[in-house]
Write a structure and sequence with these properties.
Blueprint (H helix, E strand, L loop, with lengths): L10 H13 L8 H13 L3 H5 L6 E4 L2 E7 L6 E3 L3 E2 L3
Length: 88
């Protein structure tokens, strides 16, 4: 097997991927769950395994903001995820 390198998607490629997952494509049905998982992965910087293990209790209200409170599966590190404003 030849050496292969990973190349990051451009923003347009990522948007097209997410759009395709929501709408479906040649030979596969739409899958909004996968689109949501990929969006979370990209925005939070979490591994797929950590996203799949998320529970509602992992989202903690901190004043007028919310934070993610998890322990990353692979590294065992505590992650007090990024804060985001309450949707109004």
């Amino acid at each position: 097997m030849a050496n292969k390198t990973t190349v990051a998607l451009t923003e347009n490629q990522f948007r097209e991927l997410i759009k395709t997952m929501y709408e479906g494509g040649a030979g596969f049905r739409p899958n909004p769950k996968i689109a949501t998982i990929l969006t979370l992965e990209a925005n939070l910087g979490l591994r797929i395994s950590d996203i799949l293990n998320l529970k509602m209790k992992d989202i903690i209200r901190d004043g007028g903001r919310y934070r993610l409170n998890i322990i990353e599966e692979k590294t065992g590190k505590k992650r007090n995820g990024r804060n985001w404003s309450k949707a109004e």
